[in-house]
Amino acid sequence: MDSVERLVGDLRARQPRRMEARERTIVWTSALAYTAAAVALAVVLPWNRSFDPWVAVLLLAMFVAIDRIHFEIGSVTAVAVPLVFVPMLFLLPLPLVPVLAPAGYLIATLPDYLQRKKHVDRWAYCLSDAWFTIGPVLVLGLLDDGRPRVASIGIYALAFVSSVITDAVPNGIRERFARGVTLREHLKATVWISRVDAVLWPIGLLAAISCVDHPIAIVGVAPLVWLLGTFARERKERYSAALELNRAYRGTVMLLSDVVEADDNYTADHCRGVVTLVNAVADELEIDSEARQELEFVALLHDVGKIVIPKEILNKPGALSDDEFELMKTHTIEGQVLLDRVGGLLGRVGAIVRSCHERWDGHGYPDGLAGYEIPLAARIVFACDAYNAMTTDRPYRAAMSQETAVEELWQNAGSQFDPRIVAALATVIRRGMPSEPSPARAVRALLVSSGAPPELNGSAPVLPAEIRSAKN
Average per-residue pLDDT in the chain? Predict the structure, then answer.
């Protein structure tokens, strides 16, 4: 699933919940910092514009109406507030704008609190989300005389840039420390939001020019607001469809894991262990979140093709004959065929499953791929698979120690395994092996989660590989 869609799903899921302690601390810190900045502007900037309470009420009402239209973008949402925010900058005393914006957010979200779509504990976001007002108010307060005109276009451009910066930086820090949103993910959302705002700011400026003498003219933006509302609903429906499809994929994976478990308990336990270890290695390699779900699916399903391999071969208490080993090698192709029948995301997973026994030197199977021709996910699963096979008791041999298995991995780095993967795997093992989730519900919990990797806190071994006697 695309990282933006994943973040949208996470955003929807957490809105009805009370904030966790860490998130509450960070959000309230941001909210109090915003309040301090707004108070500082009220003290520093002159109140040199007339205040008309009816104009303030009209602009606040328009702000509330526009704020009800949300474009979901990753861990945040974009709204068309520049259509009324820019006129606010010219029709109201500037120090009042940072007060009205969070007030508008609060009023706009009241229905969500009453309908329990949002937890009331989250109202502090109304302050934390209003940082975008600080930059423009400061720029216009210091550089502009208050009446909108084309000659001051450079100042207005600077005000827009300052709005982007004072929105992106505090919210980026908040999202990073409250929920671990990466800089790349936040920048991706910021660029999208900034493009929307860059289109709406000139329209808001034109509205301000039209409204400066006749504030009632602000209602002229209503048709555009309606159009944006239509687009926002369509976008929301598209994300809902994508999230539902993703749930269907995860359900299919759970079903396949049940089939594997019913067919061969060793293979099922082995695959569950691979998921845990692969996630730890992916953390060490800083694998992009967009690729993480696909990697987890490959780890869980890399041996799914073994359901077509005869039981007497799978459970043979000794080394396989040449013919038996050739038949065993077909399990990667059978896995791809099975997943191709599902198609979509699992079809792509199947193509990687096919390559999970390719060697770095090109002497693997089934296609003899070498080096970077082998998908990264397949290289990671292959090394973790081998380590698990070596550190797991089998009927025909006892498990190796962790130290011996790691030494074996290093001896085959550059021939059998990608050296970079071996280095990451060795680091994970040295720090302490992740716990192996033995119950099936642990796998289900992983699959229905938001995609975040499980915590590492144990010291048990995990997954299979290219060693012939290990039947993999």
Answer: 78
